[in-house]
Amino acid sequence: MTAPLLCVQALQAGYGEMIVLKEVSLEVYPAEIVALVGSNGAGKTTLLRALSHLLPWQGNVIFDGQSLQDVPTHRLLTRGMVQVPEGRQLFDRMSVEENLLLGTLPDISRPRLQQHLEQCYQLFPVLAERRRQLAGNLSGGEQQMCAVARALMSGPRLVMIDEMSLGLAPVAVDRLLDTLQAIRTQGITVLLVEQDVHAALHVADRAYVLESGHIVRTGSAAALADDPEVQRAYLGL
Amino acid sequence: MLLAQVLLNGVLLGGLYALMAMGLALVWGVLNIVNLAHGAFIMLGAYVTYFLFTKAHLDPFLALPFTALVLFCLGYGLQRGLLNLVIRSPMFNTLLITFGLEVVLTFLAQTAFSADFRTINPDYAGANFELAGLTVPQVQLAAFVVATGLSIGLWAFLLRSRPGRSIRAVSQNLLAAQLQGIEPRRIYALTFGLGTALAGVAGGLYGTVSQINPYIGASLTAKSFVIAIIGGLDNPLGVIVGGIFLGTAELLTALYIGPTYTEVASFGILVLVLLVKPTGLLGRTT
Predict the structure, then answer these.
(1) Inter-axis angle of helices B2-31 and B38-54, nearest 10
(2) Do A92 and B175 form a contact (C-beta atoms < 8 A)?
(3) Domain spans of chain B?
(4) B223 and B266 in contact (C-beta within 8 Å)?
């Protein structure tokens, strides 16, 4: 069995006195799509913020065999780990292409940069059409595409996406979910945090259910989708 | 003819004003610090250039790169060691600490350089030439060319280079910048260093066209502040427009109303701009 790409053990994190995540453990294997689902306030976003070291945490986070204990946010990109934050967080007053350029590693060579750009434009042809437009003027779906593309520009091994479907039209969500499948076939691992449990379980291989800061269920996405508890609580069945 | 001459002088003066304000606007826009010590850095730049000219016999214009380097290092160090303490804290804290810095720098300058008036006086200081019936003072013209050249250079740097893009990224979205591998503290120090380097060059040029002493800083901070407001914080070209606007307005006021009213004019313009278009003449309207 291969070693997990990301291994989280007994992670505790929160905001000041308030502990949001209590002893969360999970594993993500190479080229997997893993969904992290749960209701509002369960701690999903907090988990991603902690993994990106935007929050202090206790416990153990191992990425690619190395501890992330002392790795600050801005060094994670060179380690091969990138986050697409909730609400896209584009550089609104820059063009689409400038946003993508900011996604690259600092020491990237020109030909490599061109190659990454072309890959992103192939993945999202609409971004190629809008490359000179200000990112702030794109539609919600296009902005999310731009945010995902920007994250891919560094050639990451793990992409963590927070609330990808939030506020988007269903057709845009489907388009983005297809893209996740496509990048997975290139060997990129995806950790997807979603409120839209239906969409998440549809695209993921495995999933974790987070409730009040604890992992309460885990298993293959298909099994979870058939789980009566999950159906009742999250799928409205 | 007199009007045309005054307008020309105003434009030339405005170029220098623009350069003075540019560093202030850059630091303000990216770090959200209104640097009350900005004028003190201009003053220090003037002295560095002065001593390079008098002691090392370097032409003041050739001394400018050295002045810029000295002031860049000073600014970079001050940001990392001192101003990082107040980054993203309430504006009152930043005003307090930069005001303190201006007092300290002014006092140190007074101790080290004495309160004497000095001028950077190369042998071509008073030279001028005639153009279409107007007198063009050469030093002022050179100062104008350097100032606008640097402004355009800064604009291109912010727009085209990777560090420039990173500076804009940090100012537009700090969270996303961090997630994309940018270390904010380095960008803040780089930006502040650029701001003080620009102030230093402006000081060197100021010393060639005007007298310097340790106390020129405060009024130059005020002028830079007015120009940054007029021009808006988004765009170095806005600062050029603001500088030229203020330069001509001051000289026209001096001509038609009286030299004692120039400050009234500049701060009157400030109030008008804030009332009519608070984002600056070239600023975004949203």
Answers:
(1) 120
(2) no
(3) 7-218
(4) yes
- SS3 annotation, B29-59: HHHCCCCCCHHHHHHHHHHHHHHHHHCCCCC
CA distances from A31 to A109, A181, A205, A229 (A): 26, 10, 10, 28
Interface of A with B (CB under 8 A): 52, 54, 72-78, 82-83, 85, 89-94, 98, 101-103, 105-106, 150, 154
Contact call for A94 and B179, based on CB within 8 A: no
Residue in A82, A96, A102, A116 to test binding to B, most B beta-carbons within 10 Å: A102
Thinking of the domain A30-48+76-235, which architecture would CATH place it in?
3-Layer(aba) Sandwich (3.40)
B-interface mutation test, from A81, A83, A91, most B Cβ less than 10 A away: A91
Each residue of B80-119: pLDDT tens digit?
999 988 888 888 999 999 999 999 999 999 999 999 999 9
Q: Which of residues 156-175 of B touch A (CB under 8 A)?
A: 162, 165-166, 168-169, 172-173, 175
Nearest to A91 among B176, B183, B234 (CB): B176
Q: Tell me the residue ranges of DSSP E strands in B127-211.
A: 128-131, 134-137
Tokens 């940054």 -> residue = B228
Contact B175 A106 (CB under 8 A): no
Q: What is the reported pLDDT for B246?
A: 93
Task: Assess contact for A192 and A229: CB atoms under 8 A.
Answer: no
Alpha-carbon distance B274 to B232, whole Å? 11
Cα gap A133→A96, rounded to integer Å: 6
Measured between alpha carbons, how far is A55 from A20 in angstroms, rounded to an integer? 11
CA distances from B59 to A72, A233, B229 (A): 46, 78, 34
Q: How far is A14 from B101, CA to CA, in rounded Å?
A: 37
pLDDT at site A237:
67
Complex prediction ipTM: 0.92
Give the count of beta carbons closer than 10 Å to the beta carbon of residue B180. Answer: 27
CA distance A58 to A67: 12
In this prediction, residue A2 has a pLDDT band, given cuts at 50, 70 and 90, of confident
